[in-house]
């Protein structure tokens, strides 16, 4: 596929598709089984691109606090691991991430990501204060890498329900990875957390269709065949960029 | 105020790694006085004082080993970042609109080890960037990592040639450039077939060669006066000593994943990458 077109307005494009939870799960299964992508490989691609998106949305020089501190809250599954990789790349990009990762995945695949962060001297908090002002004062932004689209939004267990309750009250911007945690991936959110930035992984989910904040798409690895199969109508990634601002 | 300090990890129970890092205080002559480690000296200014280090073969192997054992990176992760850097450096050096042939064709020659794996990842990203790579991969390791990378390329409709054209002219006609991903920093000793023939052919082509990490066939430390003469060299992690003998036009650094502690341990003195770029142009 030759991306020689520079003018997106010159050709009629089908609208970008927002996928349902089930479609996303099916697509991801195909990527791993038929297309033989590795889970760690994909998590690395997503995490790296999230960090690039965050750096684009909140460049180092524009942060309000004296130190470029970022709080990264990681859930127990894939979404959390993407957060860990993102934190590592933010560190490489000279941000100062701090991770809160209350429930660590027992899978060795995900444990590796934790060690990599520790070895980059990224601190891991042992608890998240419930006093919102402390979070507002210490960090420039919070990365929500708690729950992915597959999570059961109707039954968010501790400690995440308390964490989300705290995050609903903070004043600093929240950047959500893939879906705002606690939202129904298939429906626009009503009273969940309210992120300023959403970074959709690979494809946007239905709940993002009415998202009003800054929306990025990352995950520039999807083969053309699978794009066609799911009729994704993805816009073109500019140049060698690993993200698209939607 | 304990609360604020708690949130940046001081005064709260953190992992031992974190605690060690946070308890160190360093003095920064540029900023004056004692500062906490997070507020490091601007790397830009520090690294300008010391030149970038060129690694010997053994050092390079030790660093690689540490990345996988101590730092617990997986080969897939780092290979993905390395391949992406290679593709990005190639795009910067030979942008689509600068290519002379009708099609943006690129020949990617992959060797039997990790250098070949980097080439496979690079080919996949080149396809995503709008190029038309073809791959030659004569000796494939029987490991899932490499087998999966091959499937990923096949599923992107990247053709695998059954054999290397033996005439340089055929390559010159068909391709805009050749990516040399045959041998990397572990290379030692004699070159076996089919690679000796392949290298003999590549020495005769006139289209540019982009070498991944080490120009294949070169001694990793001493270079090779009658070996391949690539136009572009993409050093991964840190340049090796062979790069001091590089006479091509473009030298990039890629593989932006080196943890600060590792960089310090080996005194790599890596210059800062611009912004969030995954490559840095050295020359």
Write a compact overview of the structure shown.
Chain A is α/β, with parallel strands linked by helices and 246 residues long. In chain A, 32% of the residues lie in helices and 14% in strands. An 8-stranded mixed sheet of chain A has the order 3-2-1-4-5-6-7-8, sandwiched between helices.
Write a structural description.
The complex is a heterodimer of chains A (246) and B (283). By secondary structure, chain A is α/β, with parallel strands linked by helices. Chain A is built from seven helices and eight strands. Chain A has helices at 21-33, 39-57, 78-92, 108-118, 132-138, 160-167, 224-229, and strands spanning 69-74, 96-100, 124-125, 141-145, 174-177, 197-201, 214-218, 243-245. Chain A has an eight-stranded mixed β-sheet, sandwiched between helices. In chain A, helix 3 (78-92) packs parallel to helix 4. The radius of gyration of chain A is 17 Å and the shape is globular. Chain B has 283 residues and is an alpha/beta fold. Chain B contains ten helices and ten strands. In chain B, strands 5-4-3-6-7-8-9-10 form an eight-stranded mixed β-sheet, sandwiched between helices. In chain B, helix 9 (195-202) links the parallel strand 6 (177-181) and strand 7. At the A-B interface, helix 2, helix 4, strand 3 and helix 5 of A face helix 1, helix 2, helix 5, helix 6 and helix 7 of B.
